[in-house]
Amino acid sequence: MSDVVFTAKDLTKTYVSGETQVHALRGVNLEISAGEVVVLLGPSGSGKSTLLNIMGGLDHATSGELSFKDLRLTDLDDRGLTSYRRRHVGFVFQFYNLIPSLTAYENVALVTEIADDPMRPEEALALVGLEPRMHHFPAQLSGGEQQRVAIARAIAKRPEVLLCDEPTGALDSRTGVRVIDALMKVNAELGTTTVIITHNAIIQEVAHRVLFFSDGQISKAVTNEARRAVAELQW
Ligand SMILES: Nc1ncnc2c1ncn2[C@@H]1O[C@H](COP(=O)(O)OP(=O)(O)OP(=O)(O)O)[C@@H](O)[C@H]1O
């Protein structure tokens, strides 16, 4: 796990609206290696989503540097970021944003039709344990199952990076565990570098590394010598 995928140096983000400035990131330095599972923890407003959005090419930093491998993201304009996002990044958000009139299979196929070297939708759905339900519509699936469809959709284009913002935020413990299980399986089988924001501190135990955020900075980084198996998680 020594190939570095992300490098951030003194990364800052300041939101300005009228007279008000919000310093969302105040000098973030980090390296994330290929295949790592990194969990971001920290109080509300500490800058986790801001960092994830900048890493995913959804937003621009104010100053500092951020690179994805040899690509300096902080030098790219909107068009460059869009192309980076399409080729390399999968996103999973708290709300699944599935299209209600399409089946699980069709929701995933929407992405595979426009990707360069995609998996087959059934392959992506099998990876998250949903092949038997692939012809169901979102309304016929539980919240956890819908989130697993969203994960299948995010990974079907074989992104190098999967960025997850509160993927279990809307789920109860049992279904949340299955979602984390699906993310860990994708990481193990495809080697997808995975960053997970969560308010659920238990989830840190499955990570290779945990970054604690406080007031726009990483206040502590902990490497887990022994990762806990997903089956042992409970909240
Ligand atoms: N578009 C925006 N405009 C202005 N301020 C913003 C914007 N987005 C985020 N902020 C502010 O930046 C700070 C960091 O927000 P961010 O969403 O990154 O925190 P977070 O750690 O992800 O919080 P949460 O856990 O609640 O999602 C907060 O003070 C927030 O209000």
Automatic annotation (TrEMBL):
<feature type="domain" description="ABC transporter">
    <location>
        <begin position="6"/>
        <end position="233"/>
    </location>
</feature>
<keyword id="KW-0813">Transport</keyword>
<dbReference type="InterPro" id="IPR003439">
    <property type="entry name" value="ABC_transporter-like_ATP-bd"/>
</dbReference>
<keyword id="KW-0067">ATP-binding</keyword>
<dbReference type="InterPro" id="IPR003593">
    <property type="entry name" value="AAA+_ATPase"/>
</dbReference>
<dbReference type="InterPro" id="IPR017871">
    <property type="entry name" value="ABC_transporter-like_CS"/>
</dbReference>
<comment type="similarity">
    <text>Belongs to the ABC transporter superfamily.</text>
</comment>
<dbReference type="GO" id="GO:0005524">
    <property type="term" value="F:ATP binding"/>
</dbReference>
<protein>
    <submittedName>
        <fullName>ABC transporter ATP-binding protein</fullName>
    </submittedName>
</protein>
<dbReference type="InterPro" id="IPR017911">
    <property type="entry name" value="MacB-like_ATP-bd"/>
</dbReference>
<dbReference type="Pfam" id="PF00005">
    <property type="entry name" value="ABC_tran"/>
</dbReference>
<keyword id="KW-0547">Nucleotide-binding</keyword>
<dbReference type="InterPro" id="IPR027417">
    <property type="entry name" value="P-loop_NTPase"/>
</dbReference>
